[in-house]
Q: What sequence folds into this?
């Protein structure tokens, strides 16, 4: 974005201009827009040079309204130094204020920044400098490590630093506590110290604790202070220094307090305990957060670093990056398949569970596809690479998961808005608390006011608010990927739990999409002759007959004569016999009496199956029933959706009778039949206009408009790339039960997010008044800052731990 109060020069790349009239029309539209003082559109360079006060998203909308587009790029960085939700808000604001950045989303849970930008206007150095001013560090993507690996390295370094500081802090605090409360354990019997000496020793021990151990908080606070900003660390810094400096004043100039009639008590142990307890909470939080991105790191870890390339007859072990499409790759038993490919030689079972979620290995032989990152079984394979690098299925899965984890669902915006004002409001509440105790509280009023003010500063926790949504999204989408459910955006994850209608395309989704011979009323010998006659036809129904006969191990003789009769069937001579396969008209025209076939014919037609008649040597031989069979798991999926309170509909271009036959098998009440491909999106829109939240499940190119139009589009794994691109959720397998799992995952994740947000809000709403001393007049309760620190540390750990429960998600079908 840009400064909206000052004209800025912006260079926008423009896509879609084909002639001079395009550039002239766009220039005229931009020049007439209020807020743009100058506009020059250059067709040759495909750029618009603007002097404007308008923000970048508005400019892009203007260009798109004219029928053109502004190409943008997306990039992810690791961002170091985030501590709470207000840090996230400030980092996002700093980035989006740069000229050329359209959108920036910072994730506190995995310390990443996802940025959509125009390269012509902004570069990495500008982004780095923008966040550096706030005390954060943006790490470039130049290394071979993935963003998840870099984030994990950062987490481990952070964890080690916390552990070191915590160890030193705990030792120093133990000594301070012994000095302060030694009399309780009889220490005064063997070490008699004057009050002044005791306080001085406490000051000496607390000083390194305050400055070195607490530097973890103070460094961030001071950096932000130089820019007039605050965060959670500022609360800790101000709270601990208040107790520390007050205590130091007691040690150095106790007469000042005695003159004022105040008790010269010290609170070094309070300052130290706050730092140590919050560091402990941070340590536990860092440890828990390390588990939130395990799923995507496990996916990345599936890819081997090298591959065996076959050059002539020689095997060469080469880095994976050197493989090209067309290379032949040797995969030995037990090895991970390095790239997507086609099997040229060999037969093996392959464990594809990391990609599809299917637990059982699948057989892969010559001519069949294999997926990079899957585990080869006992057989050796020779494969030809078809997709390498970022084009592989696994790379695209990882990219989709990152995209979903980096985006914010609508439910997160409330927490963001609160986080933006949270710290200033807490400072105000702490000041009011201190003033109220000092003016109206019982003696010692100043001490009570100080302790209550510090307790308010310490107990307030914007961290829990900042972690509530992203940790659940991180774990939920990662768990989905492990189950073969790829969620393109966190908004889709949120919307899916609100669905009340699920519309299935029939062919290839609830059915196998492949005609299968289901019935034959004649003898096996006649079926062999019928299948032999059909061998010469390429029609899908004929192929279904041949396929079934071969599965039954029937011998199929070669016809001496074959003729395809368009619209009727086929005629063939096998030995001395003429075989007719096709319609009633074909047989009756040939003089065959079809009356004996009527009893078998009528039930097939009533069931919506395709009925084919056959005659051998002039006699009626039998009726073939062919249908697109219901997929395994379809009945269970539909039943599970209906039990969950969703309406299920069948959408198909087939005739009403065929559609109703399939619907009866699946217990589907709502049938939308004879719908042309171009009308599917309109049917979805019609349901939406009635107030329904609709999911569309499909797999074909003709489903893409409906998938895009639905509130949530779900593409089946065996479908086309076009369908998957239009969908919000992609199932890596063809089992319709994956739809149930996706909706259950959405509901589980949203429930988890609500629990986190409830805890984060309830924690602050209930405990800040307690820390302020609201209940003191009624119950005499005044919360110690030490307990406030413990509660504050526990709040973030609770949120992250609750999110980690999603790792145990199992779909119930």
A:
């Amino acid at each position: 974005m840009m400064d909206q109060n000052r004209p800025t020069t912006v260079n926008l790349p423009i896509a879609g201009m084909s002639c001079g009239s395009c550039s002239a029309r766009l220039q005229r539209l931009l020049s007439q827009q209020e807020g743009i003082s100058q506009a020059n559109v250059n067709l040759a360079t495909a750029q618009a040079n603007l002097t404007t006060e308008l923000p970048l998203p508005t400019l892009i909308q203007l260009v798109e309204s004219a029928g053109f587009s502004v190409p943008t790029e997306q990039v992810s960085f690791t961002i170091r130094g985030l501590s709470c939700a207000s840090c996230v808000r400030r980092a996002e604001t700093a980035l989006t204020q740069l000229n050329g950045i359209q959108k920036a989303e910072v994730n506190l849970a995995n310390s990443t920044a996802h940025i959509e930008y125009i390269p012509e206007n902004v570069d990495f150095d500008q982004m780095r400098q923008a966040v550096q001013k706030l005390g954060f560090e943006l790490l470039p993507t130049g290394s071979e490590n993935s963003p998840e690996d870099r984030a994990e390295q950062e987490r481990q370094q952070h964890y080690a630093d916390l552990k070191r500081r915590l160890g030193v802090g705990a030792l120093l605090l133990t000594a301070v506590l012994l000095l302060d409360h030694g009399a309780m354990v009889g220490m005064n019997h063997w070490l008699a110290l004057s009050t002044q000496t005791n306080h001085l020793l406490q000051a000496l021990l607390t000083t390194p604790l305050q400055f070195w151990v607490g530097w973890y908080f103070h460094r961030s606070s001071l950096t932000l202070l130089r820019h007039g900003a605050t965060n959670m660390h500022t609360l800790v810094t101000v709270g601990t220094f208040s107790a520390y400096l007050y205590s130091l004043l007691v040690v150095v100039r106790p007469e000042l307090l005695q003159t004022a009639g105040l008790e010269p008590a010290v609170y070094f142990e309070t300052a130290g305990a706050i730092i140590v307890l919050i560091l402990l909470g941070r340590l536990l939080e860092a440890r828990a957060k390390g588990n939130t991105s395990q799923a995507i790191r496990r996916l990345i870890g599936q890819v081997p670093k090298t591959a065996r390339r076959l050059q002539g007859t020689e095997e060469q072990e080469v880095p994976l990056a050197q493989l090209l499409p067309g290379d032949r790759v040797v995969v030995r038993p037990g090895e991970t398949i390095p790239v997507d490919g086609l099997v040229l030689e060999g037969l093996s079972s392959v464990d594809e569970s990391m990609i599809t979620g299917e637990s059982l290995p699948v057989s892969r032989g010559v001519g069949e596809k294999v997926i990079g990152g899957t585990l080869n079984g006992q057989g050796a394979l020779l494969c030809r690479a078809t997709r390498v690098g970022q084009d592989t299925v696994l790379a695209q899965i990882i990219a989709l998961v990152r995209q979903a984890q980096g985006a914010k669902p609508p439910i997160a915006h409330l927490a963001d808005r609160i986080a933006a004002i949270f710290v200033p409001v807490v400072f105000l509440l702490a000041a009011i608390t201190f003033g109220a105790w000092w003016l109206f509280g019982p003696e010692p009023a100043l001490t009570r006011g100080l302790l209550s003010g510090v307790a308010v500063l310490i107990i307030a926790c914007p961290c829990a608010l900042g972690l509530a949504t992203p940790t659940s999204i991180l774990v939920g989408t990662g768990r989905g990927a492990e189950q073969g459910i790829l969620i393109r955006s966190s908004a889709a994850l949120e919307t899916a739990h609100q669905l009340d209608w699920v519309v299935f395309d029939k062919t290839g989704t609830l059915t196998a999409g492949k005609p299968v011979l289901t019935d034959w009323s004649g003898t096996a010998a006649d079926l062999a002759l019928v299948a032999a006659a059909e061998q010469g036809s390429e029609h899908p129904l004929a192929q279904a007959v041949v396929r079934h006969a071969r599965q039954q191990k029937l011998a199929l003789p070669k016809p001496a004569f074959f003729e395809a009769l368009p619209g009727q069937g086929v005629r063939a001579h096998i030995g001395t016999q003429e075989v007719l396969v096709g319609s009633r008209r074909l047989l009756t025209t040939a003089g065959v009496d079809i009356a004996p076939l009527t009893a078998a014919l009528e039930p097939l037609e009533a069931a919506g199956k395709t009925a084919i008649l056959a005659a051998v040597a002039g006699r009626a031989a039998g009726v073939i029933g062919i249908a697109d069979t219901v997929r395994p798991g379809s009945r269970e999926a539909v039943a599970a959706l209906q039990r969950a309170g969703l309406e299920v509909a069948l959408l198909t271009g087939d005739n009403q009778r065929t559609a109703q036959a399939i619907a009866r098998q699946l217990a589907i009440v709502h049938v939308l039949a004879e719908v042309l491909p171009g009308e599917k999106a309109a049917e979805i829109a019609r349901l939406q206009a009635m107030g329904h939240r609709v999911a569309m499940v499909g797999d074909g190119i003709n489903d893409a408009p409906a998938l895009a139009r639905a509130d949530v589009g779900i593409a089946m794994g065996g479908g086309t790339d076009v369908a998957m691109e239009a969908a919000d959720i992609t199932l890596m397998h063809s089992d319709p039960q994956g739809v149930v799992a996706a909706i259950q995952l959405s509901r589980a994740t949203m429930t988890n997010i609500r629990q986190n947000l409830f805890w984060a809000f309830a924690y602050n709403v209930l405990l800040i008044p307690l820390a302020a001393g609201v209940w003191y007049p009624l119950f005499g309760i005044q919360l110690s800052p030490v307990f406030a620190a413990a509660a504050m540390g526990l709040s973030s750990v609770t949120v992250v731990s609750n999110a980690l429960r999603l790792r145990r998600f199992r779909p119930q079908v």
